[in-house]
Structure formats: C-alpha cells, structure tokens
Amino acid sequence: MKAKKLHPVFAAEVAGVDAAREPSPETVEFIERAMAEHAVVVLPGQNHVTDEQHAEFSRFFGPRETPAGVASGHRTKKYRLGRYMFDASNLDVDGSLLPADHPRRRMRAGDALWHTDSSFNPMPTKWSMLRAVAVPPEGGATEFADCRAAYDDLDEDTRNRIENLAAEHSLWTSRRRAGFEDVTEERVEGLPPVIHPLVRTIPRSGRKAFYVGAHAGRVYGLPPGEGEVLLRRLTEFATQPKYVYTHRWTVGDIVIWDNRAVLHRAGKFEGTRRHRRDMRRTTVDEFQPSWARLG
Ligand code: OGA
Ligand code: MN
User: Fold this and answer.
1) Nearest residue CA, atom 1 of ligand 1?
2) Three-class SS of 89-139
3) Pocket residues: Cβ below 6 A from ligand 1
4) Which residue's CA is the closest to the ligand 1 atom numbered 8?
5) Using CA positions, which residue lies closest to atom 3 of ligand 1?
6) What homologous superfamily is domain 2-294 in, according to CATH?
C-alpha cells in the first residue's frame, strides 16, 4: 500500500487495497493514518466490489449510518439499495434514469451545494465512502475543500470569534436552499435540527477545522443575519481554488472523505441528465451512542 498525493494540501490515492476483502489490522491502520493526513483518500480499481462487501468493509472504520429517510419516514418503501447504502445516483428504484423534475432528483439537488454529509444527525459523522458503479461520459465530478488548511489560514480575529460558537444543522435547511419546497412539519419532526460546535478538533490528527456546509443554519450567540454571513464567509474562504481538489470519477473508484475535515459538492451536471450516474455511499460515525443497538 502506498499513498500518492493528488493535491498540494490534501487528498491522496492509495493503491493496493481490495475493499472486497476483510481488511487486516495493518490495512485499517494504513487507511486511518492516510485519512488523518490527507482527509480524502481514493481507492481505485474496486470494480468487483459488491454493495454487501462495500458495507462490510466500511464497518471496520466506525458504526454505519442508515440513510436519513429511514428515521424521517419520508423514505418510500421501495428503495434501490440495501440498508447501509446511500443512493447518490440519478436513478429510479428500477435503475432507470430519473426525470429532472422527479422529487428524488430535486432532493439530491442539494448535493450541489457545499456540504458535509449527515451533519443533520446528532452523532458526529466520521467518513463517507462513495463508490462509482456507473459514470457519465462527461461531467459528474465531485469537488472537495479542505477546511483544516482553511482554518489554519484564518486570521486570528476570526479564529477567536468562532472558537466557542455552535451552529444548528438540519437536512431541511439545505433542501430549502436547493429549492426543495415540500418541507412538511412531519418531515421536520421526523428529522429535527441538531447542534454542533462550529470549530472541531479532529481525533487522531488533532487538527482543527470549521464545520459548516449547507445543512448549517443559525449560529447560536449571533443574530440570524450575522450567523448566515459568517457561515457564508467561512464556506467561501474554504472553497477557494487553492483548497479544492476535484475528483473526476472512474468506474470502480471508492473515494473516502472525512466529513469533519472537508466540505464537498457534486460538480457540474453536464451529461447526468442523459446518462446514468450510479454512485453508492456508506457513511460511518466517529462513535456509537450508548443507546444504540449494535449492528
Ligand atoms: C454524496 C455526495 C456528490 C456527488 O454522495 O454525499 O454529496 O458528486 N455526492 O455524487
Ligand atoms: Mn454529500
């Protein structure tokens, strides 16, 4: 196993891992270390990996999340993928291309805003592991921004100002921002907002990063307008080209990213209206709540 840097400040490609097999303790350690350093790790050549193997491999890095719809009750009974797989594709349950105005497609439109996965969940989300099963001939890249490097480069006044603030995160905040209007009371009750500190120290690397993204709404301790401006400024700062790595997908890539360290967004959608883009994701938490059932 070797890590090859993909960008001056973060992101690396690691060859020699087979995600279809149970990882050895050395492999787990290698990936943990690579992730602590690079925050985005690409595992190429995983074409043969099944959903079950992908989910099993993920289990070695933390307790697995299930898609938000399970909790909020808006997930329809029919679902294309298994229990631990988030469907980031442009496909219907039967695998056909979704029309542009389909509600599921409109829900996914929020992925094009800079965000961090599952920050609307109460437990700190650790990593996402996204696998490319089918990619369009053009477009459909994913962009990542390093909020650790951006945090390090903040001026001291801003760093002091944000140190002890906390923000409210809700899936519905980002869906509204992306033009999804069907946010019912029932949906909000099913998945109510949660609070996370604005600045996090990431375990293992000990590096600090600000935790923002499209799910983040009001900032506690600041008037609403000021909070919104602060969140936007931080996001703009972190997404300057010098902190951004763009991943152009090859079928069989698994890309792992640290949701505590980076923001990401779906890139331009050329091609994805006419071509299938089949992306499947697992997500693991930093730790498990004491009241959770082991699974
Ligand atoms: C995700 C996501 C973006 C993309 O799967 O969490 O934001 O480019 N995906 O598919
Ligand atoms: Mn995402």
Assistant:
1) 88
2) CCECCCCCECCCCCHHHHHHHHHHCCECCCCCCCCCEEEEEEEEEECCCCC
3) 88, 111, 117, 128, 130, 142, 264, 266, 279, 281
4) 266
5) 266
6) Clavaminate synthase-like (3.60.130.10)
CA distance linking residue 261 with residue 207, whole number of Å:
9
Tens-of-pLDDT digits for all 295 residues of the chain? Answer: 899 999 999 999 999 999 999 999 999 999 999 999 999 999 999 999 999 999 999 999 999 999 865 544 555 557 899 989 999 999 999 999 998 888 888 888 889 999 999 999 998 899 999 999 999 988 899 999 999 999 999 999 999 999 999 999 999 999 999 888 889 999 999 899 999 999 999 999 999 999 999 999 999 989 989 999 999 999 999 999 999 999 999 999 999 999 999 999 998 776 667 899 999 999 999 988 777 655 4
Distance CA 10, CA 199 (A): 19
Cα-to-centroid distance, 266 and ligand 1 (Å):
5
Question: Does the pTM of the predicted model rise above 0.90?
Answer: yes
Please tell me the distance from the alpha carbon of residue 10 to that of residue 89, in angstroms, as a whole number. 26
Distance, CA 199 to ligand 2 centroid (Å)?
20
Pocket test for ligand 1, best of 174, 265, 268, 277 (most atoms within 8 A of CB): 265
> Sheet containing 278-285: which strands, arranged edge to edge?
2-5, 12-15, 40-43, 254-258, 125-134, 278-285, 86-87
- The preferred substitution site among 86, 111, 125 for testing ligand 1, maximizing ligand atoms within 8 Å of CB, is 111
